[in-house]
Structures are given as structure tokens and as C-alpha cells.
Fold each of these.
Amino acid sequence: MTMVHPFGVLGLLLLKKTAAYQTYKALSAYGWPRVYRRLMEQNRVLTPKAAQPVVADAVKSALRSPTTAYRGLQTPEVRRFVDRLSGIRPLAMPGALRSLVELAESLLKPFGKCKT
């Protein structure tokens, strides 16, 4: 039986929180209205007309209340939007917005199976 060191787990959790906090600080410095505007521009370009309101509502609710972001990422329209958004060249997107997309991508990746 393999034992996991508690300080290792604590370190990983701290690293995760630090990365999320740095993403938050970068987006705050860039400006939340600008983040929303850039995401809506990409929504109009990348999402079919019928699915645009669903994606817009998910983005708006995620920016207003980050705890609802994961629920919004579960809809197929939003998943497709994030997949298309992640395919854009990194230089075509502000760094703060790129961090947000990478965070959304990491939330969409399935977790590995735990061994018991």
C-alpha cells in the first residue's frame, strides 16, 4: 500500500490555490468588463447563432459568481466554445484571458481513476 505524504498534498493544494489567485489578479488588472467584452466577441465568432445566448449566459454568470462557473462548463455549447477558444493562437489573445481559458480547460479534463 502506497502512502501519500500529507505535506505533499498540502503543497499541491497550495499551488493550485496560488495559480487560481494569480489568474484572478491578472484578470482584475486587465479589467472584468474587458474580459467579458473579449469573451463575447469570441462567442459571436466561434459559436453558432442558436447557441450564443447559452454561452453568453454561462459566461455572465461565471464572472458574476465564480462558484457557478463549473456548472456552466457542463453544458455542451459552453464546452464547444472553450474547445474552439483554446484553439486560437496564444498571441491573438491577451495573457489574462489566455489564463482564464487554460483554467477552464483544466476543469473540463476528466480526472484519472483512483486506485483502491
Amino acid sequence: MVSFVSKNKCSMKGIIDFEIARKRNKKEFYIPVFYSSPSRILASGDAVFNTDYLGSAEEAKNNTIKYLKENNVSATSEKIGGELKYHLLLMIFL
């Protein structure tokens, strides 16, 4: 895991979630994407002008899929969510 992250210069987000799920004998895991509420002005400003939270979660999903492929694990992913405050990128591995 660490060698993959070092080689690809990517975040461990998603990859570590997969490894935890695998240790717990789960077949799915989530990559959360949190959005700030309007009452949190600095966090909202950061979300608008500085940090693309959904984009970084998508990047984490893509890196996780690449990691899974390198480890011969097939997986599917889908977006789920309900409230405006968050989305979840669901990863299901077989």
C-alpha cells in the first residue's frame, strides 16, 4: 500500500478505507465527501475558492480503483447520497 502511494504520489484516501474493509471482511466501503454548511463561512469560502472536495474524492476513487487492479481485485463504484451536505462514493469489491 505504501509503495503504491509513494510510486503514484497520491493520497491514501480510499486505499486505506479498502484495506480496513478487507481486514473487517466487508465487501464494500465508502469514500465520504463532506460539504460545508452556509453557517460556516470560512469553510464555505474554502470550498468555493480553494478546495474541490468532490474532485479530490473522485481522484481518490480513481487511485483506489488503480490500486485494486494492481492487486487483482475487481470492483465497481457508484455515487450515493441524499442531503445536499454530502455525497458518498461507494466502492464494492468482489
Amino acid sequence: MHFANNANFEIGTLTIKIKLPIGKTTAKVTVTLPTGIEYITGSASKGANAASVTQVTGSPVTAPVFTLVGTPNTEVVFTIKRKITKLATNTLLAFSYLHAAKSSQGATAGAASF
């Protein structure tokens, strides 16, 4: 099964949009990623109204923190790339096994209750 874009297990770009308040040019932004998804270090890229975006040193790849500098009172945009890890595939496999077990017990395919 192939679900990643390349050998780096990249799964795409995430666009983050933040409206800076009047008079504020800087914000700290934490991006909390789901289990098994990690930020690809160094992939942050500035978008509309962003002067700069940098990852805060020491912030985890599962919940990276960024310092965003942009135009006050506007929507400031930046993007990051993400990758899938073995933890995510284990979670997906566990869910599919659980779903298969429920389906074999007469549950409707595509529905699950926990």
C-alpha cells in the first residue's frame, strides 16, 4: 500500500492561517499534529503577509512551535510539510483489525462504535 509521496514518507503540505491583532507583528504558533504524524524539520515556508516563520529551537516534531512575523491586522499564512511514521501505520492497522472483527460479528461495514 502506498500512501506517502516519496521515500521520506511525506504526506503533504499543511497551510496555517493566523490573523494577527492590530498592533501585533509577532505570534508564537503551536501546531499539534495527530498521533504518528510529524513535522519535517526545515520545511516551514512563509506565505501571504508573512515576513518570516521559524521553528522554535527544541520544539517537538509532533507539536512544533513557530515564531511568525507578519503584517498586523491581516491573515498571515505559512505552510509546513508533514510525514507519516510507523506509529500512525500501527494505529491504522489496529483500527482496521478492530473494524474487521466487528464486521465479522455482524456489524455494518463502515460503521464502528467504541
Amino acid sequence: MNNTPQWIKDEWDKVPREKLRCVRAAEGDCKGRLTKEHALEYAGRQIQELWAILDMCAFHHAVDRFQDGGKMMKKVHGVIAAHQATEKELAKYPRKNWHGEYLRFVYDPSQPSLLKKA
């Protein structure tokens, strides 16, 4: 884990509070405070890009009182994040198999696995 760059924090400060919500809110089981989840890693480090850091409730992030009982699903978070990026942004990380690992799926809260093939 490493520190989030100040430029990203500055961008977060520009977002009105009423627009912030858990990216998995459609599942209807959000609990706890809103957190930031670094959804993806590259070369052993968290990807420090706006599209790769998701707003997530404590329950879906499995933090705070949900540490051992939350609903953290790292693959789902990676799919959501990858779909927020442009092809140019993904190209900055050429050794990652974006299409094979993430972009061939879409987040679908109606599915038991929360993912379906794109």
C-alpha cells in the first residue's frame, strides 16, 4: 500500500458530497462509511489513477467492523475500474491483460457472481 498522490486527492475534493456513493450501491446492502478502494495493481503496486480508485462503502471494502465479514470482491472491483478507463489510460500498463482479465466481463448486480461476459 502506498500514499495516494495529492493531485488525486485534489480531484476528489472537487466532487460534490451528494454525488459520492458506493460503486456497488445497486446491490442494496451497503453499510458503513464511504471509503476509497484501490481496485487494481500493476507491477506489485497500486495503480494511482482516478479510474482505478473506487468509492466503496466499508462493507463492500471489508474494512472497519466488516474486516472479516464484509463483501470484498476484488475481481468485481477490477472489472468496474477497468471499464472506467480509456484505451489510452490502459495502454500505460502494457503487461496487464486487460481484455482477458477484466474487459471481457461487465458488472451486473442481478447475477449471483456480479459479473457476466461482455
